[in-house]
Amino acid sequence: MDITDHLPLTDWLPITKKEVELRGWEELDVILISGDAYVDHPAFGTAVIGRILEDEGLRIGIIPQPNWQDDLRDFQKMGKPRMFFGVTSGCMDSMVNHYTAAKRRRSTDAYTPGGGAGFRPDYAATEYTKILKKLYPDVPVLIGGIEASLRRVTHYDYWADKLFPNILTLSGADMLVYGMGEMPLREIVRLLKKGVPFSSLKTIPQTAVLTPRSEPAPINKNWEDFQLSSHEKCLRDKRAFASNFKNIEQESNKVNARRLIQGVGDHNLVVNPPYPPMLEDEIDASFDLPYTRLPHPKYKKRGSIPAYEMIRFSVNMHRGCFGGCSFCTISAHQGKFIASRSEESILKEVDKVTKMPDFKGYISDLGGPSANMYKMKGKVQSICDRCVAPSCIHPVICSNLDTSHKPMTELYRKVDAHPEVKKAFVGSGIRYDLLVDSYNKNNDGSLDEYMEQVVTRHVCGRLKVAPEHTSDATLKVMRKPSFKHFHEFKKKYEQINAKHGMNQPLIPYFISSHPGSQVEDMANLAAETKDMGFKLEQVQDFTPTPMTVATVIYYTGLHPYTLRPVYTAKSPKDKKNQHLFFFWHKRENHQLIREKLTAIGREDLLEKLLNEKKKAQKVEVIKGRRQGKRRPERARKKRYS
Question: If we measure between CA atoms, which residue out of 473, 431, 206 comes closest to residue 328?
């Protein structure tokens, strides 16, 4: 029996006309269009938004992965909604979902039954909206999700290799909700219920709209405005685009942000300030909604959904990340301030997971965007209220940040004590820099206790952490700590393993071709990590995505905070040369590595990487002879072959 068979179909939000009729509904208030398959789980944005709207008393339908290449019948099967269409590309930017860093088309899609590719278009949020506007020109379209959120202003698109205007201009949508959408959506619904026209909703926090450029911005006496360089100026001047980003990032992460206004064509883009971080009862209310935690039964003959299989027995404890890494979009979407759930809400979800028919006793992840940030916040809120820093832990850990790991340790132990839980793993990435005394000067004594708990009870065979690079210069651009702190963490981790007679490998993540990284930096990375005993496997090439510092540097060649030049590998050849050093242990790469090291004058690394001591000395001898008598051309070629 399939695990969905024990529940009535009406436990899911309807995705067909028949399911709408099963509920006795003749009309829907809101129809959601999504690039993902429908999984009724709090880790899937469409389910969250659908349940939030349902909680507001609305009749909701979902059209997951509609066919955009036929007669468009999928977009019309539920008719016209009374209030609006909601559109999202899904849990990932559709271009990241579709293409590798080398711009090669992926053959799988983790958010589709069976993992099959080709069930959503490129730039899905834009394409879906254009279709809806053609079919139902009088129905408002509200866009959200990560693709829309990170494209809310002029942005660089890596796949087209050019600047695009904001996604409202691109798609023709009526409003954009950026970030986590619960709070703005509840306010939108509250006003629509009162009879306020959708077209009048111009001053809701955490939304963006287009207004005629000839008219003043909608009035809100509580907000200060900041004028960004126009889209047209950004097209002409890369420095203007870079300067824009600094202001956009700072305002996205402020408690009391300014409203951003950017000219584009005949319109002004108006980006209203975000809501404050969700309070405990607000985030609990979102996670406590009646999710089935299962894919819709429609998919059971098409195969499992890979992204769901990864998180089906996981529990998310918080949102937000104060790391501010230059290549990461989490803070741009969820904000840098941590919104933590209550212990009660988390334990209630753990209990619900243990009652799932196929649960075997293992929680796959107790975590969040960064696993060990639960309950962390400023000690003095007024200091946070004035802060404009995009990161709370770079270049140093803020003295006002409470980095106690005690709440997490206590919660892990309570989950461990559940009679149906054999093991609860921490599968999310752990910020190792928060766990070493050399970097985290705010140690209240909880770090060692937390590490002991994690290493002995919550590691699933091996622990993954993300130092990302070994070069301090590159790490500074990344907003990551010096690699020397990773050495300290590794030593501490191995000591705990040895103490308990355990052998759990440490798996580090690294990135090549990140802005600031040179070929020599990658060669040093390979040598240093080899010396530490690693053969790297969790590696990736830098992919520019909208709304990150690193992407702005990639496009402009300038750091947005200093406007100074920063080197970035951009050509396929340069990127390949950097990525190559991750795989020094593969014999087929040895000749290329030999050539690259010789070209940059680092023959000394040949011995470290390839164990070529004699060959390295031989190269030095030849190099010295070049300054003396020239050898015949044939002889020289023979010696170098």
Answer: 431
Domain assignment of residue 19, yes or no:
yes
Q: Which of 16, 22, 68, 23 is nearest to 38 (CA)?
A: 16
Establish if 38 belongs to a structural domain.
yes
Question: pTM higher than 0.90, yes or no?
Answer: yes
pLDDT in tens, 6-18: 789 999 999 999 9
Residue 77 lies in a domain: yes
355 three-class SS: coil
**For 323-371, how does the pLDDT look when each residue is reduced to its tens digit (9 = 90+)?**
999 999 998 899 999 999 999 999 999 999 999 989 999 999 999 999 9
Q: Using one digit for the tens of pLDDT, what is the confidence trace for 277-311?
A: 999 999 999 999 999 999 999 999 999 999 999 99
Residue 38 token pair:
């429908």
Per-residue tokens: 613: 């001591």
What is the largest distance, in Å, between two alpha-carbon atoms of the chain?
95
What range defines the domain where residue 53 resides? Answer: 9-209
Three-state secondary structure readout of 41-54? CCCCHHHHHHHHHH
Q: Residue 83: which CATH number?
A: 3.40.50.2300
Domain total of the chain: 1
Whether residue 466 lies inside any domain: the answer is no
Q: Give the three-state DSSP class for 541.
A: strand
Would you give the DSSP letter of residue 558? Answer: B
Q: Are 548 and 630 in contact (CB under 8 A)?
A: no
Identify the segments of the chain with pLDDT beneath 70. Answer: 1-5, 613-641
Backbone angles phi, psi at 373, to 5 degrees: -125, 5
Q: How many CA atoms does the CB half-sphere of 368 hold within 13 Å? A: 26
